Amino acid sequence: MFRQISKNSICLFIILFMSCQNSSNSSNEISVSNTEINTKTSYNNDILGQYLRIKDALISSDMEKINIAAESLLKVLWDENKVGIQNLNQSDEESGDLKIDQLKKITQNILDANDIQIKRKSFFELSQIIYDALQNKSLNSNVSSFIFLQYCPMAFNNSGGVWLSSEHEISNPYFGDMMLTCGVVRDTI
User: Among the four residues 17, 36, 47, 139, which has the most C-beta atoms within 10 Å?
Assistant: First the structure.
């Protein structure tokens, strides 16, 4: 019986791994090869820079670094004079503007959560808002290169999850070491 369970577990892992590796069925997606974790130490001190710090900390599954990065993002969000924030007083859902209050709430959720999976789920929400803000130009990027929208089809029980990265190579914040390179590049900003 143990051999049967073990064989089933191995088969399930192989199927999950292969489905992640073969998920680039859209013509605008780009497959990326295996890489090491690229953790930058010199991001800008703006919303996007702090977001990228949280992403890197999630990749390494380091709860302390995640919390430090979330605290830094909260400080930037509370400083209305930070470069990159436009139309700060309008956070209407239909206006297309950066939703500062939502970002504060989600970032506080990341900080308050004691479970890394809850932190990752909140990070996914943060990713969606920041991506939308970059797309509609309500958030300016001070990053000197492109920002990549990356996607893992296996995140959150196979419902999928996106995140932003300043590197083209995939380093998955939703699985960390378990499935570091699972994902594809979906868009470039």
Answer: 47
- Domain containing 127 equals 2-188
Q: Is the Cβ–Cβ distance between 28 and 163 less than 8 Å?
A: no
- 183 or 93, which is more confident: 183
Cβ contact 82:76 at 8 Å = yes
Burial bucket for residue 159 (CB in 10 Å: 0-12, 13-18, 19+): exposed
- Per the CB < 8 A criterion, the answer to whether 130 and 139 are in contact is yes
Does residue 107 contact residue 77 with C-beta atoms inside 8 Å? yes
- H/E stretch holding 48: helix 47-59
The structure's pTM equals: 0.74
Among residues 39, 105, 55, which one has the least CA distance to residue 77?
A: 105
Give the rounded distance of the alpha carbon of 177 from its chain centre.
15
Cα angle 80, 59, 185 (rounded to 5 degrees) comes to 85
For the chain, how many structural domains are there in total? 1
Percent of the chain with pLDDT over 70: 67
Q: How many whole angstroms separate alpha carbon 17 and alpha carbon 141?
A: 33
| Cβ-contact 180, 59 below 8 angstroms | yes
